[in-house]
Amino acid sequence: MSIITRHILKGITIMLLLSILLPSAVFLFFPLYDWSMLWEERIIDLPFVMFIPAVSIIIGAIYGIMSGLQWKKQLQVLEDALYHMEQGHAPKLKGDFRIQELSRMADRISRVHRQVSEQAKMSQKLANEKAEHDEKRISEIVSQERNRLARELHDSVSQQLFAASMMMSAITDGKMDVDNSETRQLRLVEGMIHQSQLEMRALLLHLRPAPLKDKSLQEGIQELLVELSQKVAMDISWKIEPVPMDKGIEDHLFRILQESISNTLRHSKAKSLEVLLISRDDLIILRIVDDGQGFAAEEPKTGSYGLQNMYERAVEIGGTMKVVSVPNKGTRLEIKVPIMPAGGISND
Q1: What is the pLDDT of residues 137-148, one digit of tens each?
Q2: pLDDT band at 345 (very low <50, low <70, confident <90, very high)
Q3: DSSP structure string for 72-129
Q4: Which among 69, 182, 194, 315 would be 20 to 30 A from 108, CA to CA?
Q5: Considering only CA atoms, which of 292, 278, 268 is closest in space to residue 242?
Q6: Where are the chain's structural domains?
Q7: Given 3.40.710.10, 3.30.565.10, 3.40.630.30, 3.40.640.10, which CATH number is that of 214-348?
């Protein structure tokens, strides 16, 4: 039964009781001499004895409707507020509650929503902290595993390749007839071992990249190139100027350099490598040049994952990347990053 129906029945019942009790009390103190007058007297074509209950029913129904609508309106506000809470929204408690109990219920709904919101925020915070902790832990585990694999490859496969290369060099150097078919095959095997060494060094560079921890970009580049020049039969030169920059830019430029050197070792067959880091016209310029076999830059297949990764890193720090490569002539990669003044954005 709805609240309006309930109030209508309640109003009619009360008015009917009043219509019976009040006339009865009046007639008790002022009795009629002729009770037939109650049927003979008519009001609006109704006997007096029927008019009073009819009017009472109408008044009771009107009162019940008005009272029921008022209650329904206020209860509807509370129902809507609870519905919004159920949907995860803030409750909309509009209107002035004339009934004190309903007003207290509205205040409690508001307090419950604030508590639920605080608990939701706390749950999300804990979830974010857990996700960050898990991500950091996974990153540490992956880094440790990569370092372990790099050490094992360096201590086993890399050393074996080096030994095989030395043995093949000794064998081929001892051959007097350089045009002999066997000698050519031995030199071919020696070249394959040498290429495998370059591939291994590139792989080790990916597995265990030298971090910039507690070092500037300039120090990191010099350390990387010095170590590389001791392990690779390649003429490596560099010009590095002290350029002040943020740590994030340093890290991205260092990773780009590592990716570029790795590509050079694996694919270019270059004999020389030149690295340049300078600052000119409010720009940080990183340039890597080799004299390898190059590639056709306009061909779609040259858009490898390595180049795409370097391009994305350059864009992340607001820079640009330009690659110029000519088959059998070499490759030139240049990164330009604008230097932003402290506390503002360059107007250039």
Answers
A1: 876 787 677 667
A2: very low
A3: HHHHHHHHHHHHHHHTTS-----S---SHHHHHHHHHHHHHHHHHHHHHHHHHHHHHH
A4: 69
A5: 278
A6: 3-95, 214-348
A7: 3.30.565.10
Segment 50-75, tens digit of pLDDT? 777 777 778 878 877 887 777 777 77
CA atoms within 13 A on the CB side of 324: 8
**Model confidence over 221-243: pLDDT tens digits?**
888 888 888 777 789 899 999 88
3-29 vs 48-86: helix axis angle to the nearest 10? 150
Instruction: Spell out the alpha helix ranges (H) of the chain.
Output: 3-29, 37-40, 48-86, 100-152, 159-173, 181-207, 217-231, 247-263, 305-316
Total-model pTM: 0.50
Q: Rounded to whole angstroms, how far apart are CA atoms 131 and 198?
A: 38
Residue with tokens 């920059």: 245
Q: 289 has which bridge partners? A: 274, 332
Cα 242 to Cα 230: distance, rounded to the nearest angstrom: 24
Over residues 246-285, the pLDDT tens digits come to: 888 888 898 899 888 888 887 788 889 999 999 988 899 9
Phi, psi of 164 (to 5 degrees): -65, -40
Report how far residue 49's alpha carbon sits from residue 42's, in angstroms, rounded to the nearest whole number: 9
